[in-house]
Structure formats: structure tokens, C-alpha cells
Amino acid sequence: MARPREFDIEVAVEQALQVFWSRGYEGAGLIELLEAMQIARSSLYKTFGDKRSLFLAALTHYDITRVTAAVSLLRDALIPDGEHRIANLLMSIAEAIEKQGDRRGCFLCNTAVDQAPHDKEIAEQVRRMMSRMEEGFFCALVASNLKRTLDLNGEGEARLLKTARVLNTVYNGLRVMAKAGYSAGEIRTVIQAQLHQNGLENMGLVTKKI
Amino acid sequence: MARPREFDIEVAVEQALQVFWSRGYEGAGLIELLEAMQIARSSLYKTFGDKRSLFLAALTHYDITRVTAAVSLLRDALIPDGEHRIANLLMSIAEAIEKQGDRRGCFLCNTAVDQAPHDKEIAEQVRRMMSRMEEGFFCALVASNLKRTLDLNGEGEARLLKTARVLNTVYNGLRVMAKAGYSAGEIRTVIQAQLHQNGLENMGLVTKKI
DNA sequence: GTTATTAGAAACCGATTGGTCCAAAACACA
DNA sequence: TGTGTTTTGGACCAATCGGTTTCTAATAAC
Q1: How many domains, chain B?
Q2: For chain A, N or C: smaller number of CB within 10 Å?
Q3: Residue A39 resides in a domain
Q4: Is residue A20 domain-resident?
Q5: Dist. CA A87–CA A68, nearest whole Å
Q6: What's the pLDDT band for A209 if we cut at 50, 70, 90?
């Protein structure tokens, strides 16, 4: 029995995420955040507490939207070969540069670099999100020809877990390169070389068949 | 015919670098910088112009000290095998975490992530420094068994250049992982897997013989 | 020693920072 | 319609931001 909130929290958090994503935590001013979120100062503080909590909410929102989407892509059974799923994910980095001129990179990677070292809670969440990414890569590897090769050799899933972590490391490295100004073409070359080296040979881009 | 400067510019820039390195550009306040540099406000502005120029000076200082040191390691003829030089450089990331608890990562990588997208001049310098790192990896690869394998196959230096870029990407990825909280042991595992995949098999740590 | 020049310490600047407070408006429920 | 509760916008806050100015002290050249 009270006045209802006039804005949608999820929409507001998504807008805040956009600002944090392109400006970073320190670079994002309250005014810029409020304009993007289309809410008043007091509404922000009443709803979220403070700037840091809003950031945490944005990070969680990134987790349940973007990270989840990436993991889904890596588990997508509609693309039978895991190497194709991995190639699709990595190539999307180059595509983002090419088509949208997007050099904001990965919000998770950005946050790991500039906030995780100074904030324990953020660091923990970043670790969890990184682990989710690794799991995604692992799922794709389970459906790859690398898995089949390893099965013949009798090597276990330990090797797959290791490769998943390597791929996630490369993924983060690529996002840094994108921010450093490398072109879409240069990034694609790195991806191809990397996939080749990981024994993921069949790596042409394959679109989902529905 | 004037009063001489009381502080050493290089020392001051090195101290400023330390602050920018651990706090980032926006996170580094004037007061913190001045205290670390042990100079007065007006001296800073007279000598460097403004905060951004000081940052640029710190970035250049990082280039001519740290990046140069890394490249020297990668070209060090006293370590005959290139793969050992590469392993040494990558393993130093894990060592920094283990021995100094240093999670500030690589200042070049940090700057690429949080400043390059917003500042053209910084972006250009970051690109130049990344290229220097790649050249370093290339020099090490020239002295590696991968090179010898490729020579037999008739593959040219193009492949080596590509691998150099991949290694630099991995290097940046590892620095992100370090910031994300991965342990020295976890990072070492990734490095070993990666070196293995790059055909750089002889990868035990080898100390320089003088 | 005088003079020209510059370094240095500190006061000072407006703008902006993140954050609080309060009166008024808007709704749910009776 | 009246009442109670909560959101809202905007005024307000001290602190800090990056940057400037001023004035004094130091010193090299003459």
C-alpha cells in the first residue's frame, strides 16, 4: 500500500552496466550514471545503497546475461562440434570490433584488471565468473575432436580442464589486444593460430542450424 | 643561472609509475602522487604540465625500463634456447605473485585496458609497446626448436611472427588471470600447457649461465 | 655582491566527487 | 475520499578533484 517504483530495476542496472563498461568504476560519475539510468539520485541510493553496490549489481547482471550467453553458446548442442562453438565465441571478439567498433572489451576482464585487486568481494565474484567461463570451454571441448583424440590416448579429462583454462586465458588476452587497438583481422589471425595449436583444427565459422 | 631542480626527474617518474601502476590513472590522486614523488604540487605542474602528461611520462619510463628488460630477456644469447627464455618470462608472472604477492600485473596491460580506449596518444604508445613485446618473443622463437622444425618443413618466418603474437596474447591473458586472483600454481599450469601446445617442449626453467 | 632566473611551499581556485535530507507527489488500501 | 506509506526530484553537504597563483628562497653568471 505505497507508491510503486517508477522504474524497472533490471533496466536501470543494464543502463548502469553500459556506463561502467565503457568508463570503468572510477571513470563513471554519478551524474552520468543517473542520466543513463533515467532515475533520480535519491532513488539510486534508496534502491542500491551506494555506488559500489550498484557496481556489484551491474557485475552480477553481466554474469546472468552476457556470461550466461557465452556459456550457452559453448554448450549449444545445435552446433555439434565443440571446436566450432569455441571458434564462434572467439571470433565474436573480432566481429564486435568490425561491426560495432566496440572496443569496450569484456566487462569481466575489465573489472578483473581494474577493480579485483582492490576489492575482495569483487575479486571473489570475478573468480566465480571466470570459473563459469572455463566450464563453458570445458563443455565445448567435451564435444570436440580433441576429446576423441585424447580418449584414444587414454588421457583423462584433466587435460581437457587444462585446455579449457588455457582457452579462457587466451580469450582474456584477446580482449586486451582488442583494447590495445589491434584490428579485427589481426585478432582473427591470432585466433586461428591458437585454435590450430590446441588441436582444434576444424575451425571454420559455422552458424547454428535450427 | 638559476636555481637547480632539487629532485631527480627519473626517480620522481619511477615513483609516479608505482602509484599509477597500483591505482590506475583515475585512482591515482594528486596528493598520493606528490607524496610518493616527494615533490611539491607546483614542481609537478612546472615539470610535467599536467597529470595526463605525467602519466605519459610514466608509461614511457615503463617502456624503457620494464619492457626493455623483458625484451632483453627474450633476446638473451646467454640462454641458448629460445623456449627457455620464453618460459622464464612467463614464469616470472607466477613468481611475482608467489614471492612479492604482486597482483598489480603488467602496467602496459593495465593501461591498454583502462586508458587506451579513451586516449589516442596513449593508445598509440600502447600499440608500440605491444609490438616491442612481440618482437622480443619473435627473437626468442628464432632461437627455438620450433624454428628448426619449421625450417625443415619449409615454413617461413611468417609462422614465427604469428606465434610471437599468440605468445604475447597469452602473456596478456595470464596477467589478467593473475589480477583475477588465480594462484601462482594455477598460472604455472596454464603456462606449461601453453608452451606444450606451441611446440616449445623443452621448457624447464633455466637460469642464465654467466 | 648584484641580478636574473627558477625551484619550492602553501594558499587558493572553481568544479566535481559521492552521499544525505526533506518536502511534495503518487499510489494502495480502507 | 481520507490515510498511510514510499518514491521522487531537487536542494544541500563536506570533501576532494585537478590545476593556478603568489611569494619566498636558492643559485649560477656576471
Answers
A1: 1
A2: N
A3: no
A4: no
A5: 17
A6: very low
CATH number, residue A178: 1.10.357
CA distance B91 to A105: 26
The beta strands (E) that lie in A85-209 are given as none
pLDDT in tens, B24-49: 999 999 999 999 999 999 999 999 99
> Chain D positions under 7 Å from a protein CB?
4-11, 16-22, 25-29
Has residue A112 been placed in a domain?
yes
Closest protein residue to D26 (Cα–C1'): B3
Residue B68 lies in a domain: yes
Asked if B194 has any chain A CB less than 8 Å from its own CB, the reply is: yes
**Chain A touched by B136 (CB under 8 Å):** no
- Chain B residues whose beta carbon lies within 8 Å of the beta carbon of residue A189: 162, 165
From the Cβ of A2, is strand C under 7 Å away?
A: yes
Q: Which residues contact B75 (CB under 8 A, 6 or more apart)?
A: B85, B136, B139, B140
What Cα–Cα distance (Å) separates residue A140 from each residue in A77, A109, A136, B174?
Answer: 9, 21, 6, 21
The mean pLDDT of chain B is 90
Quote the domain boundaries for residue B53.
9-197
* Residue range B76-132, pLDDT digits in tens: 999 999 999 999 999 999 999 999 888 899 999 999 999 999 999 999 999 999 999
CATH number at residue B72: 1.10.357.10
Cβ-based burial of A133 (10 A; exposed 0-12, middle 13-18, buried ≥19): buried
Q: Which residues of A touch B197 (CB under 8 A)?
A: 166, 197-199
